[in-house]
Amino acid sequence: MSGISGQHLGFGVVSGHPGPDPDRLVADAVHAEALGFDTFSLSDHLHGDRPSWEPWTALTWIAAATERITLATDVLGLPYRSPAVLAKMAETFDRLSGGRLVVGLGSGGYEAEFRAFGLATRTPGQQVAALGEAVRVLRGLWSGESLTLPGEHFRILEGRITPPPAHRIPVWLGTYGPRALALTGTLADGWIPSLQRVEFAGARRMLAAVRAAAEAAGRDPLEITCACNVQVHFDERATPTSRLVAGGSEAVAEQLVAVVAAGFTFPQVFGLGRAEDRERFATEVVPLVRRELSLVCPLDHRATRASTGGTQHPWHRSGGP
Prior knowledge:
CATH topology: TIM Barrel
Domain Luciferase-like: 17-237
Distance between the termini: 33 Å
EC number: 1.-.-.-
Shape: globular
CATH superfamily: Luciferase-like domain
Helix content: 25-40%
Organism: Kitasatospora phosalacinea
Number of domains: 1
Number of strands: 12
Number of helices: 10
Protein name: LLM class flavin-dependent oxidoreductase
Mean pLDDT: 91
Strand content: 15-25%
Strand order of the largest sheet: 1-2-3-5-8-9-10-12
């Protein structure tokens, strides 16, 4: 069973392989597992003229070829699947994979994709409400008890799945707006923003909002895994920005130390599509980050202290929450 929870320090690979080569997809995941990465993730963009994977089907294929690595959706677009059906899909996947699932879920920010498939499109306020209902549907059905939920967007009448999950399946939400961040702090096991979408300084302010909402709900904020999607580019000549980690191995590690020290303890890395880049990240960058943070065990963010010496990358100039 996956040990990913709370302030676990971990590193994941977000697959950049769009398909349609299943052997390459599996080889990438097997390689990531062999290198010690904690997670392997797929995104959920089904509409378009570029090749893509349906993530549940593809992750099931990967699960059969791997043994340890946790598999994650980064993140599912809510309109694509009924949350009640998703609850059963997740229970089955988690059981068959030996407890190696993280359900990443978002309200769905790309409305053109859902319109193209004839699916529900919602206003921003409706998106937040529907996401909250969906999490309650998942948790309710996973409880093993009969669930009735007369929601505005999802209505469940004495729904039940058998068997219930053998353990708690983590739900990470990909959220950005104030109401959605408050929902995340109140209900979610994890938060997974994309630093390519919001600048690092903005992500840190959002993190403060998630933790404030958790405290207001009577939760320990440190129980929430704060992951983040981050783009990494190995190029000694490249200039890092507040949305891109770039440079040689030492420069990349220095920037990621700042990311982790800010509270994003589970970087999910884009840009490791080549085997040599995955190996470089795992064998050079990860040890540098762990050594700098003096972390070889689960992270308590209250005790984290990160050096900001050396080159002042944008990750260090952004200020804290």
